[in-house]
Design brief:
By secondary structure, the protein is of the alpha/beta class. It is built from twelve helices and twelve strands. It starts with a strand and ends with a helix.
């Protein structure tokens, strides 16, 4: 296992020099954030990012994420241009020594929460999802804001995009994903890159949009769409784990045993009822997931990929990007490292 930390570049309030002080962190997971989705990342910018990370003593071989343009997900005639650009990004990333590329196939929104500064009893703040609140929201016919969402579209643009998805069901989304993978997986093989799809977060439909990377059988279907050593998974325990039907230990044993887990996000969540949850501290007793069991399963399948502590609470008065504070993720990293060390001895 390669314990790593996500970093959002020079604009991140968390500095590489601070991450350097967290015991056990060997790598940085990052991306090029100033290029619009669907466009090509300049090789010079990738090189500069790699140099900065390497100069701080970290490895940089995992990118999260290369965005998949909405026209690819929608299956529009213009998608081939964006697929070509995605392949160009794989080529440039490979030249820079990147081995794993995370992506997702969620229509319009990626991670979705209803509040990004929910106050817990201990005085910390965290992200929360309340499905009843989402059900009362009509993003097509009402003015729309979503906490924590990067508003890449103006209101009219968002409305038009959502309307395009009204005729797209899950099977059509699967068809469009297959078309995409049949184009990009051979390129990933050529450039020696592992493509790791991130589960939908949360793993159910929101605002009537189809979501398909949601459970064990769908992960299996994804793997079988285009069988290849380059076609695999990024398992996010907090995303899949909020659905009680998802057995994370079984998922890790199945796909880890097939060497199909390329990237791990490990975090805990506290389930509040059907389709509602908040993000808790990493230890077992703080949430609803068996983090110790998850790490044990990873150890048993000999997981050697990149693993990072995922979203943390805001603690000790820290402010910054929701879910990506320094202190609670550092505590999470130490907890995960301690579990792994106990399994290794």
């Amino acid at each position: 296992m390669k314990l790593s930390m996500r970093w959002y570049g020079k604009d991140d309030h968390v500095k590489l020099s601070q991450i350097k002080q967290i015991p056990g962190i060997k790598g940085i997971v990052s991306a090029i954030y100033n290029i619009p989705p669907g466009e090509v990342w300049p090789f010079t910018e990738i090189q500069a990012l790699k140099k900065e990370i390497n100069d701080h003593g970290f490895n940089f071989d995992t990118v999260e994420s290369v965005p998949v343009h909405e026209e690819i997900k929608l299956g529009l005639k213009t998608r081939d241009r964006y697929i070509t650009n995605f392949i160009s990004n794989l080529k440039n990333l490979s030249r820079a020594g990147i081995k794993t590329v995370c992506y997702n196939f969620m229509p319009v929104f990626d991670w979705t929460r209803t509040e990004i500064a929910y106050n817990l009893a201990d005085g910390s703040q965290t992200l929360i999802y309340n499905d009843e609140q989402i059900k009362k929201t009509d993003p097509i016919n009402e003015p729309f804001t979503l906490p924590g969402w990067d508003a890449s579209y103006q209101q009219t643009e968002l409305k038009n995009l959502l309307q395009k998805y009204q005729t797209l069901d899950q099977e059509k989304l699967w068809t469009n994903l297959e078309y995409f993978l049949k184009a990009v997986v051979p390129a990933a093989e050529k450039y020696d890159i592992q493509l790791a799809i991130h589960p939908d977060d949360p793993p159910w439909s929101i605002f009537g949009l189809p979501r398909i990377i949601t459970n064990q059988s769908n992960l299996r279907r994804l793997i079988n769409l285009v069988p290849s050593p380059s076609n695999g998974l990024a398992i996010c325990t907090g995303s899949l784990g909020v659905n009680p039907d998802n057995n994370l230990i079984e998922i890790i044993r199945e796909f880890g045993g097939m060497n199909k887990i390329f990237f791990m996000h490990v975090r805990n969540v506290k389930k509040l009822g059907p389709k509602s949850f908040y993000e808790s501290a990493h230890p077992n007793e703080n949430g609803s997931l068996n983090i110790v069991g998850i790490m044990k399963a990873l150890y048993e399948v000999n997981f050697t990929g990149t693993l990072r502590p995922d979203h943390g609470r805001m603690i000790w008065g820290e402010s910054g990007k929701p879910g990506y504070g320094l202190y609670d993720r550092a505590l999470g990293a130490s907890y995960l490292l301690g579990i792994w060390a106990s399994l290794s001895n």
